[in-house]
Amino acid sequence: MIYLCSDGYYDQFGGDKGLKFFSVNFRKLLLEIHHLPAKEQLGILEHTIEKWRGKREQVDDMLVIGLRMVLEKEPVIASTKVYGKQRVLIAEDTEMNYFLLFQALKSFNVHIFRASNGKEAVEFCKANEVDLILMDINMPVMDGEEATKEIRTFNQTIPIIAQTALDLPGQKDHLIEIGCNDYISKPIDLQLFISIIKKYIEI
Questions:
Q1: 51 neighbors 16 (Cβ within 8 angstroms)
Q2: How close are the terminal C-alpha atoms of the chain, in Å?
Q3: How far is it, in rounded angstroms, from Cα 132 to Cα 75?
Q4: pLDDT in tens, the chain (203 residues)
Q5: Dihedral angle computed from the Cα positions of residues 98, 99, 103 and 104, in that order, rounded to the nearest 10 degrees
Q6: Distance of alpha carbon 48 from alpha carbon 37, whole angstroms
Q7: Are 142 and 151 contacting, i.e. CB atoms less than 8 angstroms apart?
Q8: pTM of this prediction?
């Protein structure tokens, strides 16, 4: 999803203390609902701001536009993959994020596999040898945290790099504690991403 918006939504006063909704809460809300159908997202956005506003007046126009990129089929490069000795599993539910990670890994001469949720990642790792996992934390069916914990019950050595858009205080330490080896926040800084990958993959 790509969102475009005015500042009217998150500048609305409301709640028990009459404060603004604030952009940080708006961003968090979008991250929680982005995977839902557009009509459901609209309903949640309308209900949330009405509940927040209560009996207060609306202070500004509110414009929120959501665009979903839908790929009719996987990109050609994703189906041909990059064949190499080392095997990388990308656990990522979003097509565009998977596509970007795939592009970033092309120069490493690795064989790339994909899981669309945490459960698929766990099942793939049970049945296949994997040299590195790029684990999205916010996924449907089973999130990346649960998948990491599950993988660690039968494989203690495979490197797992967590990736998340929710860059919260203490999150890196938490993810390392549950079994991840490394961490990178989204949007991904390509140079930082490559430097982290080089720790675990031979070029």
A1: no
A2: 33
A3: 22
A4: 899 999 999 999 999 999 999 999 999 999 999 888 899 999 999 999 999 999 999 999 999 999 887 654 444 333 344 445 788 999 998 888 888 888 888 777 788 899 999 999 999 999 888 899 999 988 888 998 999 999 999 999 999 999 887 767 777 888 889 899 998 887 878 888 888 888 888 76
A5: -30
A6: 17
A7: no
A8: 0.59
